[in-house]
Amino acid sequence: MTEIDGRATIIDGKAFAGRLVERVTAAAARLSADHGVRPGLAVVIVGEDPASQIYVRNKGERTREAGMRSDTHRLDAATSQADLLAMIAALNADTGIHGILVQLPLPGHIDAQAVLSAIDPDKDVDGFHVVNAGRLAVGLPGLVPCTPLGSVMLLKDALGDLSGLNAVIVGRSNIVGKPMAQLLLSENCTVTIAHSRSRDLAAICRGADILVAAVGRPEMIRGDWIKPGAAVIDVGINRVPSRDPVKAAEGKTRVVGDVAFDEAVAVAGRITPVPGGVGPMTIACLLANTYTAACRSAGVEPEPLAA
Ligand code: NDP
């Protein structure tokens, strides 16, 4: 963490993620050496969405850097749902593959929920399968969605014990908001989930010791919505025009979060930047989940990674 001019301490997600990846890499090497199991991740992408192509390439590179097997399956945009399901079935049966990730969004003719439900829950390293959502809800070991998992690791590193803190999560998606709420509940926070129908969102946010923004609206959370000293986790990734009007006219963009960072940094106690906060934790946790899934498939207790 870095403190700037007596303002909020910046939670350096990039540095934390780098350390986590080092631990995962070392643990995966030991799993391979001691038990003959090299963790393997298969990523499936359907179509040519440019952002998805970049995400998938990054995931493949990072998986290989961690010493794991990385398979990428690039399918044509016209691939039928039946063919995609057949590929998932083959990956479920492949004993060298411990994690399966289907890059979202899928083309409109494919039922994403049907595809996610077809993944073996024990290989569901995104943690999106209803079985893993259920395991999280009742406190059983499962695979936890990467972004909330990484966010809670950052919070525990920054604050230590989270017991009794008031946590407000803005956003109730199945991939971020809801699992985030479950994780913070299991850390003994008092959890409020806010969404587009919530009344007086600013007042709800002002009650938060921990404020998590997972909305997808650039800089929606203002500085005066934040309780002085609160920990702010900004999950949002939004592309907006460059600050420089000439560059903006050329179509150049920059990435901002769901929190107005310049205002928030003057009020919050701790805050994740965008970029460099939650984003790097997501891929680090994907590698961690692949390692965990590989251990479980071999009946080996995973080494603790979160420290
Ligand atoms: P979704 O669009 O699935 O969900 C957004 C949530 O925000 C919904 O629950 C919606 O409420 C709520 N919301 C929208 N507008 C408002 C508003 N005006 N006031 C209050 N609540 C509102 O998004 P995701 O959860 O998938 O993603 C959220 C953000 O996180 C995005 O910016 C995304 O890019 C980013 N993200 C970042 C990741 C990372 O690695 N850092 C990974 C995943 C996502 P309602 O349910 O009522 O519609």
Q: Give the overall shape.
A: globular
Query: H/E order of the elements?
Result: EEHEHEHEHHHEHEHEEEHEHEH
Secondary structure: helix percent: 40-55%
Low-confidence parts: none
Bound molecules: NADPH dihydro-nicotinamide-adenine-dinucleotide phosphate
Query: What's the number of helices?
Result: 11
**Proportion in β-strands:** 15-25%
What is the CATH domain class of the largest domain?
A: Alpha Beta
- How far apart the termini lie comes to 15 Å
- The total strand number stands at 12
CATH topology-level fold name of the largest domain: Rossmann fold
Which class of secondary structure composition applies to the elements?
Answer: alpha/beta
* CATH homology-level superfamily of the largest domain: NAD(P)-binding Rossmann-like Domain
Quick description:
With 307 residues, the chain is of the alpha/beta class. The protein is built from 11 helices and 12 strands.
